[in-house]
Amino acid sequence: MNLRLFSSLSQAKSTLSQWQEWLFNSSTSFLFLNEQLAEHKKNEILSSIQKFLEVTPITTDPFFLVPTSGTTSVNLKIVLITKKKFLQAAQRANTFLQATMADSWLISLPLHHVAGLSILARAHLGKNDIHYWPKWNPKEFLEKLSHGNITFCSLVPTQIFDVLAENISAPKHLKRVLVGGSALSDAHYQQMLTRGWPLLKTYGMTETSAFMSFSTGDEFYQPLPGVAIRLDVNQRLAIHNDCLFEGYLVQSNETWQYQEKKLHEGYWSTEDRAEFKTATPSQFRLLGREQGMIKIKGELVNVHLLNVRLIDIAAGLGLSAPIIHYVANQRNENELFVLLSKNQDPNDYVSTFKRFNQDVLPYERIGWYIQIDDVPRTELGKIKISVLNSDSFKEAYRENRKIILD
Length: 406
Known about the structure:
Elements: E1 3-5, H1 16-25, E2 29-31, H2 39-55, E3 63-67, E4 77-82, H3 83-97, E5 104-107, H4 114-126, E6 129-132, H5 138-147, E7 152-155, H6 157-166, E8 176-179, H7 186-194, E9 199-205, E10 210-215, E11 222-223, E12 228-231, E13 236-240, E14 247-252, E15 255-260, E16 263-264, E17 267-277, E18 280-289, E19 293-296, E20 299-302, H8 303-316, E21 323-329, E22 333-341, H9 350-359, E23 368-372, H10 385-388, H11 391-400, E24 402-403
Parallel strand pairs: 1-2, 2-3, 5-6, 5-7, 7-8, 8-9, 22-23
Antiparallel strand pairs: 3-4, 4-14, 9-10, 10-11, 12-13, 13-17, 14-15, 16-17, 17-18, 19-20, 21-22, 23-24
Helix pairs in contact: 3-4, 8-9
């Protein structure tokens, strides 16, 4: 078993084409870890996984080990995907996007995330030019996009907000901008379309080798050709295709365990609750994850959908998105509040909070907020719920709450 640690392309001595050949065509397997981790820490993780796999063989096919988006240096959960399946997913995306050899890609997402790595795979299969630039700066991004004759790229919603702030139209040669990572507000989506940006909202995850469904505008997604979906008994989205992962490597108390993916009649259940569009059963809408469902005064509340609503209201007023979270309440089970970062002036959000509270049910209203230095997010812009639920944050909730006036 030949497992190597993938190094940043910006630090590598090899050319990009050499890296692609080694990554996708060799018998070597690769471990991808956050580039910000200390080198000694990355090598410790690599060594411990190598020792585990020596006594626990999983597959004879070369594979990638890619951390899930919620992985930290302490709580490691790593997805094992064979190279063969990863490349099949990349080819499916290329076919759907109608990409040709004349196209080029800009990689503006980290390669230790499946979103960035999948672009490298698509470009490799399509023999496309690649512009690798993972350090985000909206002005430099727009300059590279315009002068590099780039036709495809991927962004996450936080990057979309930065692009909108520059108030620049899309270059005419740009064919598609794939948007994933977390929910994009409808207001931001429409603003980008008005400026000529060819957005395509996507949904997927590390376990599916990047995106497996898309939306051309509304809140409903439909699977790519060759992907089948249904709801499991818990109303979670279940997926069947030929590009699914093999299982997880999970570290607990410095000990690794392998958890093979669980299938039911060939379908793998995600953690995302969903519902189908009545007229078109193949189209689905995400309702958030099970841990985002709470009870307030005995009523079931979907925090994910409330956040979508608040984000839309704020975006319509030209404001960056605040975050709704919740904390236990002895009388009401839970209560909702808003997180603002230090760069968000509470006075700017008075109208946002007022309109939100007018739109929702009484037990869904937000009564207070706290302001913190930065809302904890992953590199793809997803909220780190585990950090928000930590004891240190809960203490801040109690000490720093400020009432939202009606």
